[in-house]
C-alpha cells in the first residue's frame, strides 16, 4: 500500500509541476498576445487560475503526506515522546477532516456550477472547484495513511551502480 501511495504522490507532484509550467506558458502567451499582437485572449486568465488551483491543492496534499503541512513542529519537538504521538495524531486528524471538507464541499460546488459556462473560456465553470475536490480527497487519503502507518519515511532509492 505504501508503494502505491509513493507512486501516487510522485504522480501528483509531477502533475502539480506540469500545471505550474503550463500556467507560466499561458501567462507568457497572454503577455505576448497583449503587448505584441495587441489581441489579448480571454481564455488565458481563467485557465491559469484553474491550473494554479490544481497545483496548490496537489502540492498541499503531498505536503500532508510528508508531514510538512498541518504540523506543529516547534511545539512537537518540545514535548515528551508520548505527547508527541498525541499531537501528531491530532494534527493528522485535523488534516483528514480538512481534506474531507474540501473534498465534500468542493465537490458540491463543482457539481452545482458544472452547467454554467466559465467566463472567458469554453469550459464548465464547475472546473474551478475540481482542484478543491480532488486535492481534498488526496489530503484525506494521505492523512489517513499517516494515521495508520505513522511517521513519513522517504521511499528508498537505488543508486545507478547498484
How would you summarize the topology of this molecule?
Layout: H1 2-35, H2 44-65, H3 73-78, H4 81-113, H5 130-149
Poorly predicted regions are none
Structural class: mainly alpha
The radius of gyration computed from the alpha-carbon positions, rounded to a whole number of angstroms, is: 19 Å
Our measurement of the CA-to-CA distance between the termini, rounded to an integer number of angstroms, reads 25 Å
* Secondary-structure element order, N to C: HHHHH
Largest sheet: none
Write down the overall mean pLDDT: 88
Helical percent range? over 70%
Number of DSSP helical runs: 5
Short summary:
The chain contains 5 helices and no strands. It has helices at residues 2-35, 44-65, 73-78, 81-113, 130-149.
Task: Give an account of the 3D structure.
The protein is mainly alpha-helical and 162 residues long. Helices cover 71% and strands 0% of the residues. The chain contains five helices and no strands. The longest helix is centred in the N-terminal third of the chain and has 34 residues, at 2-35. The chain is elongated, with a radius of gyration of 19 Å. The chain starts with a helix and ends in a 13-residue tail after the last helix.
Fill in the keyword field for this structure:
single chain, 162 residues
Amino acid at each position: 500500500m505504501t508503494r502505491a501511495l509513493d507512486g501516487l504522490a510522485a504522480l501528483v507532484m509531477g502533475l502539480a509541476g506540469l500545471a505550474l509550467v503550463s500556467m507560466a506558458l499561458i501567462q507568457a502567451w497572454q503577455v505576448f498576445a497583449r503587448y505584441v499582437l495587441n489581441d489579448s485572449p480571454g481564455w488565458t486568465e481563467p485557465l491559469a487560475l484553474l491550473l494554479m488551483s490544481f497545483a496548490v491543492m496537489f502540492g498541499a496534499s503531498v505536503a500532508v503526506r510528508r508531514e510538512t503541512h498541518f504540523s506543529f513542529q516547534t511545539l512537537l519537538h518540545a514535548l515528551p515522546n508520548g505527547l508527541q504521538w498525541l499531537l501528531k495524531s491530532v494534527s493528522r486528524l485535523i488534516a483528514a477532516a480538512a481534506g474531507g471538507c474540501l473534498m465534500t464541499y468542493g465537490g458540491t460546488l463543482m457539481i452545482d456550477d458544472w452547467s454554467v459556462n466559465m467566463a472567458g473560456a469554453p469550459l464548465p465553470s464547475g472546473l474551478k472547484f475540481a482542484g478543491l475536490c480532488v486535492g481534498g480527497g488526496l489530503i484525506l487519503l494521505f492523512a489517513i495513511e499517516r494515521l495508520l502507518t505513522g511517521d513519513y519515511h522517504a521511499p528508498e532509492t537505488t543508486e545507478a551502480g547498484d
